Please model this.
Amino acid sequence: MKKTTKTKKKKSPKSDLRNISLVKNVLFKPARYKYIRKQEVVKGCVFCNSSKEISMETLCVYKSDFSMIVLNKFPYNSGHLLVLPQGHGGDLLKLSSDQYADLMATLKLACQAVTDIYAPAAFNLGMNHGSSAGAGIPEHLHFHVIPRWAGDLNFFPLIAQTKVVIETLEQTYQNYLGYFNNRVSS
Model:
């Protein structure tokens, strides 16, 4: 009787979780490395630089008398905005009544823009006031306006340490610039 030997079928990398790094999708964002490693040197305050003009280079999409709306260079979600005073300062309590009222009106306008353009189910609105509270740029106070949708907080950022944003900053900029230009002209 002839012996037949079964050849062991090799597992494909896709079926072996130990080789997960061989099959996962990788999203490359090399510009983020310079920011994280603080190798990107900006002269002066990045937010004060944004107040100079409305442009893609500054990421500023709107300016009021005392405040402005700027895209977050590293957004958590598409449509992520920053609302901040044009004047340099990290203390909300040092704003004049007029500056504070303008900042709150601009924050409300930013929420309306996000609603009209992206139709989110909800928002995260927040400010980390001071470095101990987690402010990345504590010298210039700013609110975050982050649109949120059901299911947008999935396992991907936790497991893969990667966030998927569905449009480029240029697309986001054009969406908001058109919106604010239409509001100003009407």
The radius of gyration is 23 Å.
